[in-house]
Amino acid sequence: MSTGHPELVATIASEIATSGPIPFARFMELALYHPQFGYYMRSTPPAHERIGWRGDFYTSSDVHPILGQALAAQAEQMYRLLGQPSSFTIVEMGPGKGLLAKHILETCAHRYRSFFQHLRYVLIDRSPAMREMQRRNLAPWLDRAALLTWAEDLPTVAPHGLTGLLLSNELVDSFPVHRVQVTAEGIKELWVDYRDGQFLECLKPLSSDALAVHLDRLSPEWPEGYRTEINLRALDWMKQVAQHLDRGFALTIDYGHTAQDLYRSDRKGGTFLCYSQQSVNEDPFLRVGDQDMTAHVDFSCLATTGEEQGLQTTGFTNQMSFLMGLGVEQMIAKLEQDSPEFNAAIHLLRPNGMGTTFKVLIQHKGLARPELDGLQYKPFFGSALATQSAA
Known about the structure:
This protein has a single domain, classed as Rossmann fold (3-Layer(aba) Sandwich), CATH 3.40.50.12710. The chain is built from 16 helices and 16 strands. The chain has helices spanning 6-19, 24-33, 60-63, 66-81, 99-111, 113-117, 128-137, 154-157, 209-218, 232-244, 259-262, 299-308, 319-325, 328-333, 340-347, 354-357, and strands spanning 22-23, 88-93, 119-124, 148-151, 162-169, 178-183, 186-195, 198-204, 227-230, 245-257, 273-276, 279-281, 292-294, 297-298, 312-318, 358-365. Helix 10 runs parallel beside helix 12.
């Protein structure tokens, strides 16, 4: 019998029994976001956190507040570049435990008081369990009228467009992905079947024309046996971001690569991983609904999709360079050297870790060539975001 959350396993197995094998993207969607039994959607006992040092994985916000402090400084500069509008909205999509929002709000309240008076903060999350956790972490701000609101999607927040910042941190990597493999007959898609109490993968024709068009656009020259992931959901999400931003910025932080790097021919196994209790595996059929699933982000396609929808690419950098541009060295200098807090802050900057693995894409709309402090240091050439994959 496949391991995992029993009701979720039974639900997925029933869908397969009714309609036949399902694309892996559908399996991942159900495993993570099934309304009742999905990994992110249901509550867990206090002894088992999903996100954090004691959980399945941790985010930059769990490491140290310095990311939120830097983002507050960047948002305040964006507010000034927009002419100090009467209302500046930060929309955080996929806000996790609410720690990043907490750190941003604390910094704005203490350091940027004028900006704070015009700030509205919206958290977009469809998970009741995650919303409950966010409210606990943001309790000090709940009594401020109109400062904090929650929504399930962008159209609800900004049906006619908003002015401000659309922010995400480690959101896109959790979108369900299509997995494809090169065979002697061409590129096939990974589908999921269920037999004799076990989930099994099988290769079948591509599940949609959209997937075929996207692969043609990449123009890959991959060897037989090559396997990778295609995140069509990320492109739909970026289109929505572009449509609902009137004037301002979109800032996306995640671990990922340019297309040239992500789809290199020597990266033949793809980037799909599962996380459980700080351990990593590549088996999506292990602990179904009880482990996280992720794949690295294609920042080139995000940038290109945004440009096609009216956004302009402000810049692309890594987390280390982004934080340095916003004065992280001065922030760290105030900490006691070799203290746990100091070491935690340094962890966000490590060249062979979070400092360079995490990338920052900033796009803008309604401004002419804004210069942002977070983009002072750019470790990539101007053509890095080209969508043509490397052979």
